[in-house]
Design goal:
Chain lengths: 432, 408
Amino acid sequence: MATAFSAAKFTAQPFPLNPASTTSHDSSIVFAKPTSLFLGSTRKLRLTSYSKFNLSRRSGTVDAVSDVVKQKKSKSSPSLLITKEEGLELYEDLVLGRAFEDMCAQMYYRGKMFGFVHLYNGQEAVSTGFIKLLKQQDSVVSTYRDHVHALSKGVPARAVMSELFGKTTGCCRGQGGSMHMFSREHNVLGGFAFIGEGIPVATGAAFTSKYKREVLKEADCDHVTLAFFGDGTCNNGQFFECLNMAALWKLPIVFVVENNLWAIGMSHLRATSDPHIYKKGPAFGMPGIHVDGMDVLKVREVAKEAIGRARRGEGPTLVECETYRFRGHSLADPDELRDPAEKAHYAARDPITALKKYLIENSLASEAELKTIEKKIDEVVEDAVEFADESPVPARSQLLENVFADPKGFGIGPDGRYRCEDPKFTEGTAHV
Amino acid sequence: MAAIFQGVGAAAALPSSPSYSFDSNKSVFSPRRSFSVRKGASFAVVRSDGTVNLNPKDRRAQLLISNAVATKADSAAASSSSKPGHELLLFEALLEGLEEEMERDPHVCVMGEDVGHYGGSYKVTKGLAKKFGDLRVLDTPIAENSFTGMGIGAAMTGLRPVVEGMNMGFLLLAFNQISNNCGMLHYTSGGQFTIPIVIRGPGGVGRQLGAEHSQRLESYFQSIPGIQMVACSTPYNAKGLMKAAIRSENPVILFEHVLLYNLKERIPDEDYICNLEEAEMVRPGEHVTILTYSRMRYHVMQAAKTLVNKGYDPEVIDIRSLKPFDLFTIGNSVKKTHRVLIVEECMRTGGIGASLTAAITENFNDYLDAPIMCLSSQDVPTPYAGTLEEVTVVQPAQIVTAVEQLCQ
């Protein structure tokens, strides 16, 4: 049975670098010509056919993904990677992510949401591929590009849209906004505006899981944490510090790198001495995997292994997903630096189109069924917008309500009473 | 209650003024870690209210007070002087508080550099790793930003971590996590996640530790919304504040001082906490309100003795809660004395004193007979040379002069 996604066999031409050589071996170092003005990594980035991949198999290193996929397929005869239900679930999640983000763009330009809004179009396979394998008690930590992570984890579209509109019915009561999606119920631990600062939080959540198992003796606690972040973050100290700690204590965490090649306008190659991020895993004693992040099934296979490892207490994994964002960094980004050819290249690998093709070719679903899903999602998103529109804005009294978990933290006023004891206090009429 | 200063660290808390028989020449100051008690060191008995009893057997009529917090919540503890209690040093009081809370709640855990096997660089976590295990008393790699963030993530998911900064100054590296996540996540998550974390460590100007090990971060952190800051100064309030901080649902930063770890005091046997938001009345008085915290409390009490001899009656309040300020205790005092002197170890610019001055002016301006005076450390990186370091921080002589000026 053919996979819908053929291993991308494209020459390693990271744009807009170095048109010089077109060799298909990735590991050879190509030295920049002396006259080159390029300041950045001289290593080729994008990999050629995976089977030619020649990573040394150090202990714990897992490399090419399509190898894994091929093995699975050769084991049992024509078995598919997913069942029909799974396929439909995945498709629905991908479409939800896409439709929601498209609606966000519309609403932004209509003046319903403000500030920095970072959309996930094109990267849906990573979110769906990983998060749909999690249980409710597992945790997800993301960055500012977090709408779809929250949706995949189960936060209702209504709650996310309301949050974006700044309404009190939002998942964070309108206090967080686009970059700070939290949900206690679904264990979404944010939503962080500074890159890298979510990774230690994720490490802490994984630490709690281990603590519960080993100190509190909750023997069945096998909660896993996923930390999502981008290529730019992989040059940040917190990334490395947490890789070290997670490997050191064998924490149940998976570090998922969404390498979309660009950090706003900074190309990954111009910022990184060795752009192969997955290689940084083995340096800390954990497996480093590279996977095609435009292919939800490949991502899912890798995610199964990584999450399984974590659940079994075998420690962390670093997964680099090669992916791409179809839109700019944020809705304020004119997106002028990226080569249209690069964009076209990835647009052709749209994860939704690819999964659709796979489902239909393997008779897992019909066009009609998929159309029904798309229509359903459209309704969900429209309903979310309506709900958000009709929801009330936060009252003035909400301003001081969640500053402290224990409002005694506002202190004792001149009259001797705790400030929070004054019923007018949270209305903000009392002097702070 | 008497506090016996032992060893090298505590000796530096006393001024080397010739009017005391404490002979600083006899003590040798160790370069960094002052937790070891040096046997045979000469010592004087210094009451924690600052009066010095040079001849411990000579019971002069002393003016002051028990260390009881003069507020309602701790009135039960006010009678601690009548209960037997037990004597210990300040770092032991912190250890005791921490240990009791760890026994009480298995979710309480400790993270930091050298807190486990080493027992803490100031021995505040001594013996805990053996008792509770390596995971509950976690020796972290040197990555302050990340392990503080890890503590925050753990707090969000159900644990109650106590993060130790080996020196408060190192927490500058964790500023990202403390400001962005520790203070803010409860709010930006709409109240969904609480962060019951305690961040603690020794700070302040020590004994020739050099500029970077002599920092006062309370001024840097005070603007962060969503956190509380407390500073301990006696074994009694150290244990009480440690326990209260651990039990609090809010993130609390507990400031300790490098030179106060060897203070000795008798504290109650029974369980008690010190309210995080309350100030401590150290010495009631009539003429002037002196507001202080941490190590400067002892300089103030030293000056108070001189002032009393000169006929002044200062009221000394250890504000303890650096954020928020206890405006009730402070306000009552201002209403009584009408003159305020703030003595702090923070730097002048943007320090706790500056905020306190603003708060008092805003709230009690009508009660003031004179402008508020604020004595702070000089705005310089703390020099290594002993003579220069001495003039960087406020000395008792300066306090005496200031009070005299204020009371003209």
